[in-house]
Batch of 3 targets.
Target 1
Amino acid sequence: MKLCYWLKLQLVMRNGGTREEGMMMMGFSSSSVMALGPSNHNLFTQNQTPFSAPKPLLLTSMAEAPPPLPLPLPLPLPSHKHKSSCNSLKDKLPVFLSKRTLNLSIVALLLSAPSTTISIAIAQEQELERYTDTKQGFTLLKPSSWIKVDKAGATVLFEEANRGTNNVGIVVSPVRLTSLGEFGSPQFVAEKLIQAEKRKESTKDAEVIGVSERSGQGGLQVYEFEYKLDSTRGGMKRIFSAAFVASKKLYLLNIAHSDQPENPLDTHTRIMLEKVLHSFDASSST
């Protein structure tokens, strides 16, 4: 109500009326108007801007709408480079440790390998002993636990105790040849050996595995052979054989060992038998 009276009073005064006239128009008595004091005819000076009520803002279209104020950009979070560095170090630390551990393991293995190899070699040497027949003129290593037996057709024969099918035999025969090369190549001699094995009634099958040649005492020509033999006498066997000619004698070494599918020749025994094979040679007095 007071606001309505005040607006009417302002309207009268803007049209040149006095405050008293405006109040009388609003229903005040003349005595009440006089009690308020003399009028200044206009409450506004010439240099003052008369009061006007604010006009409501009407938007006729979206184009007239003021642009929205830009939102404040979020403040950047404080960086923790030292923390991320620590994290990266922690991430890399297990990898570094694992690589270091692996390297140490490899070094330990390399350091222990020679001693292990030496131990195996010493053990194998202890299992072998030198046998030399000065009368026939040959020498070789033989398993120390294998015993010497007499057998027709063999110059010397050594057998494993309780397993006679595992044996080392040497046959010495006179020939007209001065060297093994005069008889033929290693492959040719291997074929002759296989043919001789297959002619035996006990042989079921024979197959060459390897052929090689080496130099012996004084440049002596030595042939070496390896083949598999399936026989009714002992079943599957592995045969290592060596031959050379010296002083018009043919020296033939034959090593036989069981090699059954259910119980194949183990690596340790194979290495030992190969040492016997490579040791077969003419003695220095031949």
Target 2
Amino acid sequence: MVVQQHVLNWLYSVLTSEYHDVNRTYNDVAQALSQYPSLSPRTDVHTFPNGASALLLHLSGTIPVLFRGTTYRFPISLWVPHAYPREAPLVYVTPTENMVVRPGQHVDPQGQVYHPYLVGWSTFWDKSTILDFLAILRDVFAKEPPVIARQQGRPTPIQQTPTPPPVPPLPPDLAPRPATQPPASAGHETSRPPPPPPKPGSRVQQPQQLASPTPPPQHSGPPLPHLPPKASRPMSYAGNPAAQIPPEQHTRPGPSRYESAPPLPPQQSPPPPQERRSFPLQAQPPPIHGPPQQGPPAHAGFPPGPPQAQFSQHDPRRMSTFSPPQPYGTPPPNWRQPPAAVQPQAQPKPPPPPDLMDDDLTLSIPSPSNIPAPPIPPNPEKDALLHQLAQTLHSMRQRSRAQNESSLAGLQAQRTAMLAAMNTIQAESAQLSQLSALLTSNTNILKDSIHKADGVIESSARHPAPNIDELLVAPTVVGNQLYELVAEERALADAIFVLGRAVERGRIAPGTFARMTRSLAREWYLKKALVRKIGNGMGLAQM
């Protein structure tokens, strides 16, 4: 892509101020901008690790990288130093808000890029360019992405966990009542105090104790009356709560705690779903003294229907386990005295209830210190992160194991080849050692021979030159005679040949030639016959 002319003009004007090699820097930066249009040049102040600052040319933008078949654009920041190209550029990875730096072999946690190409830049500065390094950087990022997506914050636990059920209403005895009711029933309560009934069985008190951590019933109001004939069942007390309470309890004055409801105990707060499922059904009903406060007595003029319907709305799941409601209008005569056959086992009479009219107007709330804190529910976000981390580590381990197993075959073959080469090298080294020893021995022998030859040459220089005739001596006298005869015969033949050439050239007269030739030929013939005779005597081949 062609870079716009005004950008090139601005680039050249910026480089001419402080850069050492303007033309080379201009050429390299222009090529990089032409190849990567996503890079934008500008000048910024860069602070070096030693604290020094300088106004440098800054190329910022993204470079396309093909990673697993998809092209990604990784943000980078490239600073060109003033001594460029003799100094390598500074390259950083600049993640966006949705990314974080992924440290690797070539990127540190601060985002700075390291590579052998940058290390050797100062040595091969004449061959190193920004464009070549960006191409190398793309290959590096294709193998190790420099950034990863930032982990998005998980939704709040309210969106992950199911919505807890609404806070249940206050027990009826804790709910505020109109101020006009206590005086109306005060006279009736003082005129007819209820006698202390026997203590109910433990099976009936257990739901009351689990439902609320308030003080015992004898301290918060009149004691419970005798159970009806169906009191032996754990859940039967909730069937008709109004019919099981004496009329005196409906008209008794409410203490001061009715005017302001106390805070809910810890057990009333919505527990985690696991804890709610673990409680038994007997612990779910409201306290036994709650319904009488919701439903006024029949003689007060209220219809009997709404209190029972209102109680069933608090927990409709118990409709199937409660006994059918009984109409209550005027209290039956045997209400306060159940049949003797169904009375519980005789127990010591509890102490008389305190007079609520004489008590203080403040209610002592039990300290929550003696109440065990509910167990901490599991954190689904933490569990999900741990599960995701375990899966990531497992996948990384599997990939690393697969890579190691795939490279084992090549490494094993390379090891075998290296062992064979090592054995060959060791054998050749042994042979070379033997050859070196042999050459050393021969060199020593040669040096000794040369030294002796030098001594012979020096000694022979002082002796006179020998006669060649004395050196060529036959082993026998006949042999010496044969050497001499052969030499004389050849000399005579040469003399006759020379005389013939001299006659041809006119140097001697023909008569002289004839006379000398006859004399030499006669002597030559005799010499030749004698040579043949000696040769036959010595057993030599015919000449």
Target 3
Amino acid sequence: MAENVYNKDAMNNINSIRDLLNFLKYVKKSDESSKNNDKKYYDILKNFLDSSEENNCRYFVTTTNYTDYVSEIFGTTNTAYLHGKLKWFEDLKTLQVFDCEDDNEYDKLLEIAETQIKSKQTRLIPFIMIPSGVKPLICKKQINEFKKFSDDLDKSDYLVIVGYNLNSEDNHINSIISSWLRENEKHKVIYLNYIGDKSVDSDAKTESIEQYGWLDGIKIVSPYKDNISKIENIAEQFIVININSENCHDIFKNTLTQISQNNCEQEKELCLI
């Protein structure tokens, strides 16, 4: 399927990706000049990251998005990309993965693209993991990203999930979270469950959480309706908080605030997807 979509115009596609990435950097700079800094997940998290030293807290960011938007804001050291990057291209012949923003790798990509055009055989495809029941780890770059996520999680007591829906097609991620939860009963997942325009007083969608086999044996509170300030004293390890279009940013901000105030000496892992 990928070969049908991505064959003859490899060189143009690589250059187009580069142009898109440059545009996203421009958008990021435009966002930074915006006065409204408390109504976006990225801005809220960035404010906490900027003040993390004075709070004696450490944060990590994990994402299944493909663009560099997250790492451009938060840096590459504490950012893990689990589903590949828009700027990565795989050579189907050698199984190598190249970064089109790296000048040396970009030159190599252009050489391969020229060969592909002349031979009329597909060699280069974007290296991203699209929704699928099977997601094999076939690239060293990607394995390093998963290791970064796993290592960051091992340093943390909290995992906050926002902007991402749990699903069985991401069991490669669920497996890591499941193992982490079972290693220490103090480990907690705070899952901000977006329910759109529905009232947060309803139990919308939360009934599906208990159906995931990888959470079998894990104590779950779904939905959690008490004051978020009591979160450290909750016995359950998997805490579902319903959020909607009206309160999602306030709840996210409040969650980060309470975690940092509850235990400032401990590192925090945030999954931003």
